[in-house]
Write a structure and sequence with these properties.
Strand content: 35-45%
Number of domains: 2
Shape: elongated
Number of helices: 3
CATH architecture of the largest domain: 3-Layer(aba) Sandwich
Strand order of the largest sheet: 1-6-7-8
Largest sheet: 4 strands, mixed
CATH topology of the largest domain: Trna Endonuclease, Chain: A, domain 1
CATH class of the largest domain: Alpha Beta
């Protein structure tokens, strides 16, 4: 199964689990001046690339799920941060992705690698 297909299935499976978003990142160019040419092309003077969006390694899907706080924690419901790195059958984590997952888990959130909706549900429910 392609990663994009798995991601869509996982997003659908998470609908009743909390509030989740697709993380979008990209790269673009900027410069000292941008000039639109008559044919629609852009001329960028003194161009330099820049990255947009989130830090390297940030999970493909992120969000929060409602979590009941125990009575000794005032009995309130709070959001628990979740991050899901979606991979196809042969996909592997990069070191920045591994670092991000570890940081989320080390700070009380839930994060992991999901290849199927069942794996994603297990991560956000704290079963994996």
């Amino acid at each position: 199964m392609r990663e994009a297909v798995a991601q869509n299935q996982i997003r659908n499976a998470l609908v009743d689990e909390g509030l989740f978003f697709r993380a979008n990142v990209g790269q673009a160019w900027t410069g000292s001046e941008c000039i639109r040419l008559p044919n629609g092309d852009m001329l960028i003077k003194q161009p330099r690339p820049f990255s947009t969006g989130l830090p390297a390694g940030f999970s493909d899907l992120f969000g929060q799920r409602p979590t009941l706080i125990t009575p000794e924690m005032v009995g309130r419901t709070a959001g628990l941060f979740c991050g899901l790195e979606i991979k196809g059958p042969k996909g592997r984590l990069t070191q920045p992705q591994r670092n991000f997952i570890n940081a989320v888990n080390d700070n009380g959130g839930r994060a992991g690698v999901a290849r199927t909706p069942d794996e994603a549900l297990a991560i956000v429910r704290g079963q994996k």
